[in-house]
Specification:
The model has no long low-confidence stretch (mean pLDDT 81). The protein is mainly α.
Length: 153
């Protein structure tokens, strides 16, 4: 009978252990549920508070949109007005003198460039003439032009 009592005692202890584990799990789930309820309450209060501010937010956004539209319209009008504004240009004696001096400098520079160009071309022609003479002198024989050749042969 002692064995039966011992088995019942072990079963009873195991039952108590399971109850304790279930109680611990239940406590954890209750804490999780309390946290969730607190979170829901806080979110509800935040939504109620923000719901009151939505009208003000919509008004502010509409005002900002109108302000941007006005800025764009103002910029476009300024561009159109600038295109339509006539310009008055005057030629003073000083500006005429500056233009004449610039023209004279340009003509002097152009004349200098032409002289340099002519000198470079003359040098190139001389070099070419020397090279051609060296080529012709390198050949032996008689050179007869086409007209002379056609006349005698």
């Amino acid at each position: 009978m002692a064995k039966k009592d011992f088995s019942q005692l072990v079963a009873h202890v195991e039952q108590k252990q399971e109850v304790k584990e279930e109680a611990t799990n239940l406590d954890a789930q209750l804490k999780l549920l309390k946290d969730a309820v607190t979170h829901i309450i806080n979110n509800t209060l935040t939504l109620e508070h923000e719901g009151k501010n939505i009208g003000k937010l919509v008004e502010a956004l509409n005002a900002a949109k109108d302000s941007v539209d006005n800025a764009i319209t103002g910029i476009c009008n300024a561009i159109v007005e600038a295109h339509q504004t006539p310009l008055k240009v005057e030629m003073t004696d000083e500006s005429k003198q500056v233009m004449e001096e610039g023209r004279d400098k340009m003509l002097q520079r152009e004349e200098e460039l032409f002289k340099n160009h002519e000198a470079a071309i003359g040098k190139s022609v001389q070099t070419l003439e020397i090279k051609f003479k060296n080529v012709v002198d390198g050949f032996k024989g008689v050179w007869v032009d086409k007209k002379t050749f056609n006349r005698y042969y």
